[in-house]
Each structure stands twice: as C-alpha cells, then as structure tokens.
C-alpha cells in the first residue's frame, strides 16, 4: 500500500526540542509529558516538562499540529536542543505509538512449527537417562533455622517504597550539606514584641489596600528592619571569597519559600530602595510564581541575605542553615501570646523568637548580636525607620 512519506525535508514534520535552560544549567530530567501522541497542540503550547536543579522548564510545540510521536521517555536526561517529540502539521499518517510501547517480538511473527517438527524436537522417552542402582538419593537439606527472639523483626519489604529524588531535592540536599561543611555556623537568638507592628498593620490595612492594591503583611516590616540592620552592620552583607572579603554595596533579600516540589529562594532586588508597598507587591508576585513553578533562573540567582519564615508552619524556634554564598540568614517564627513584664506589670504580649545563623569565620558575635538587636528595635517601634534612629 502507498502511504504519504513524512520527513523534515518537506516541511510536514517539525521537532519539539528542549529550550535553553540557563547559563549554569547543562541538563535536566524529562519529568512528564503533558500531552499524548495523537493530541492536537497549538503553537507554543507546552507538551512536556523538564526538571532541573533549580526550576521546571516547559518544552513547547514550535508549530500547531498533531503530536506524531515522542522520541524521549520520562526520566531521560536531556540537554538543550534534545529532540523530545515530532509534531505533524498534517493530520494524515499520525501514529499513536509512544516510545515506551514495545514492538512485536520476532518470535510472534514466525510461523508455528508443524506437528512433525514438534515430534522431532521432543526427545523420546527411551533417550532419557536412567537412574542406576549405584546412585544414592541426595539427603534432604536441613530445615532453615528460625530467627531467635533476640534478632530484630524488620518490616517486610512490601511495605516500603523506593522513589527517586527529584533534581530540585538533590540540589537542595547538596547545597545544604555543602553549607554545613564550609561555614563555621553559629546561631544567636532574641525575642521580639510584635504589639506595635501588628497594631500598625491593623490600623492602616484598609487604607493600605485601597491605595496600593495589596495587603500589608508582617514580612515587609521584617525586610525593612533587615535592610536597616544590614546598613548598620555591613559585614553581615559581606562574604568570604578565598583570602578576600567581598563587601556588597547593594541589598538583595532572598525569601525562602516552601513549595510542593521543594524549597526555592527567590530574590527581592534592591530592597533598600523599596517602600512597604513595593516590597509587598514583589513578595506576592514571587510567591505566586514559586507555587506555580514558573520562577525563572534570574529570579532566584544572587541574593546577599536570606529571611526564612518558619512561623507560617507553626515553628516556635529553629536554627536556620546559611544559603551559600551568603554569610547569614534570619529565621522568623510563630507569634505566641506570652506573659511579659511591661512597666512592672505582667501583661500578655504577642511574642516571636528570631534567630540569626551566621558564618563565624567572618562575623563576630558582637556584630551578630547588634544586628539582631536592630531587628528587635525596629519591629517593636517602626517609627525608628521614619526618624532613622
């Protein structure tokens, strides 16, 4: 039968390939297909996702048409330019066979042997070896000894599941372990009375939303306090590079965000030049992209200081790990009403523990404590930001 040939030469077929993934990313894992062979796709419509060490990247169809076949499998390691699928701009000749489907075996295509051939292949009963009287039957093997009562009874393997780590999880694990092995990490703590910052938010939340179109949260207050602390203690914003110290004359705040796929750390650029509204808008934008998995490499690159808010999950106290190549990280925690002595009276106050983990090779305890103390002073009395005191 005659069938119309398809090839890249006549323009009916186009290849969907892995796009450029970033300067520091050389390969990724083909995580999953979003379409099936035979599905219709539009131009630039995602058909597959590639998971890298940092982000998940879509492989888009270059033309509108029908997916003829996939030429890669889920779990394959792919590089930029690797062909993933073949798209047919015509409907004819589309095959629905995915790479994972097996082709018919050679044995299935061969004719069945005739009865005579079967008879020849089966050995006659007379040709079977006979057992001579000299041969002695083998002694039965001794029964296996039962485990003693002292041996631990492990759960059966059927109740365990082995799942490969994602690239993002492996990358996070590697960076955190490198951080532990490189930095001389030390953590200092303090407690912050959240009364005034929470009252500020409560008093102006409606007017803030009406003017800026975004809610006023607590994170912007801590970012402004961190900016003030970094300006007062620039060594916290510096980093060791070999035998040198690099002082950064900019403040880029990284915000640790937990997502279903793992931890990502988008960056708020030039936070020292932003007001409360600009910070809140940027936080909302980055958080939405993080949950959607649409953060770009540029949005996570760099950063001179990190803030991690474990309080959103209910954490009361923790020792955060430094995000290299930075030198310190601030940990926020849950707000709990506790009895405090104020003006000689015991009153209930909303309190938060804050923790600063820093690289003790570069930062002395004096600078670290001064920095945390500045965070405490600004959060407990935000008017200090207006007066710069």
From TrEMBL:
Quick one: where's region Disordered? 93-164
Which top EC class applies here?
transferase
Domain Lipoyl-binding spans what residues? Answer: 13-88
Compartmental location: Mitochondrion
Q: Which cofactor does it need?
A: (R)-lipoate
Q: Name one GO cellular component term.
A: oxoglutarate dehydrogenase complex
Q: Which GO terms describe its molecular function?
A: dihydrolipoyllysine-residue succinyltransferase activity
Q: In which pathway does it act?
A: Amino-acid degradation; L-lysine degradation via saccharopine pathway; glutaryl-CoA from L-lysine: step 6/6
The superkingdom listed in its UniProt entry is Eukaryota
Key words, A-Z: Acyltransferase, Lipoyl, Mitochondrion, Transferase, Transit peptide, Tricarboxylic acid cycle
Q: What residue spans carry the Basic and acidic residues bias annotation? A: 113-123
Q: Specify whether Transferase is a keyword of the entry.
A: yes
EC number(s) on record? 2.3.1.61
Catalytic activity reported: N(6)-[(R)-dihydrolipoyl]-L-lysyl-[protein] + succinyl-CoA = N(6)-[(R)-S(8)-succinyldihydrolipoyl]-L-lysyl-[protein] + CoA
Extract the InterPro entries matched here.
Answer: 2-oxoA_DH_lipoyl-BS (IPR003016), 2-oxoacid_dehydrogenase (IPR050537), 2-oxoacid_DH_actylTfrase (IPR001078), Biotin_lipoyl (IPR000089), CAT-like_dom_sf (IPR023213), Single_hybrid_motif (IPR011053), SucB (IPR006255)
Please provide the Gene Ontology terms (biological process) for this protein.
L-lysine catabolic process to acetyl-CoA via saccharopine; tricarboxylic acid cycle
Task: Write out the function statement from the record.
Answer: The 2-oxoglutarate dehydrogenase complex catalyzes the overall conversion of 2-oxoglutarate to succinyl-CoA and CO(2). It contains multiple copies of three enzymatic components: 2-oxoglutarate dehydrogenase (E1), dihydrolipoamide succinyltransferase (E2) and lipoamide dehydrogenase (E3).
Family per UniProt? Belongs to the 2-oxoacid dehydrogenase family.
Tell me the subunit arrangement. Forms a 24-polypeptide structural core with octahedral symmetry.
Q: What is this protein identified as?
A: dihydrolipoyllysine-residue succinyltransferase
Tell me the classification of the organism that encodes this protein: Eukaryota, Viridiplantae, Streptophyta, Embryophyta, Tracheophyta
């Amino acid at each position: 039968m005659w069938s119309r040939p398809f090839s890249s030469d006549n323009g009916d077929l186009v290849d969907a390939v892995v796009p450029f993934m970033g300067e520091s990313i050389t390969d990724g894992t083909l995580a999953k297909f979003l379409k099936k062979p035979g599905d219709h796709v539009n131009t630039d419509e995602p058909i597959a996702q590639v998971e890298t060490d940092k982000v998940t990247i879509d492989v888009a169809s270059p033309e509108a048409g029908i997916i003829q076949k996939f030429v890669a499998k889920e779990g394959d390691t792919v590089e930029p330019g690797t062909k993933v699928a073949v798209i047919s701009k015509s409907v004819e000749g589309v095959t629905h066979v995915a790479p994972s489907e097996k082709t018919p075996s050679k044995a299935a295509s061969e004719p069945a042997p005739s009865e005579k051939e079967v008879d020849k292949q089966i050995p006659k009963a007379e040709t079977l070896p006979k057992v001579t009287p000299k041969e002695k039957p083998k002694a039965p093997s001794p029964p296996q000894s039962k485990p003693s009562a002292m041996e631990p009874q492990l759960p059966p393997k059927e109740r365990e599941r082995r799942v490969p780590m994602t690239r993002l999880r492996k990358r996070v694990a590697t960076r955190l372990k490198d951080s532990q092995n490189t930095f001389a990490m030390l953590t200092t703590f303090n407690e912050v009375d959240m009364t005034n910052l929470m009252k500020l938010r409560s008093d102006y939340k409606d007017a803030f939303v009406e003017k800026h179109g975004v809610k006023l949260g607590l994170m912007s207050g801590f970012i402004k306090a961190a900016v003030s602390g970094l300006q007062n203690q620039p060594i916290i914003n510096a980093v060791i590079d070999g035998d040198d110290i690099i002082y950064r004359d900019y403040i880029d705040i990284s915000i640790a965000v937990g997502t279903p796929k793992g931890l990502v750390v988008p960056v708020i650029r030039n936070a020292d030049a932003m007001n409360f509204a600009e910070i809140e808008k940027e936080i909302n934008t980055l958080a939405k992209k993080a949950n959607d998995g649409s953060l770009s490499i540029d949005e996570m690159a760099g950063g001179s200081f990190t803030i991690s808010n474990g309080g959103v999950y209910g954490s009361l106290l923790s020792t955060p790990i430094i995000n290299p190549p930075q030198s310190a990280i601030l940990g926020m925690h849950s707000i709990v009403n506790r009895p405090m002595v104020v003006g000689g009276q015991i009153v209930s106050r909303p309190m938060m523990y804050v923790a600063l983990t820093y690289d003790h090779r570069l930062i002395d305890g004096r600078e670290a404590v001064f920095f945390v103390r500045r965070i405490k002073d600004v959060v407990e009395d935000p008017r200090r930001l207006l007066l710069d005191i």
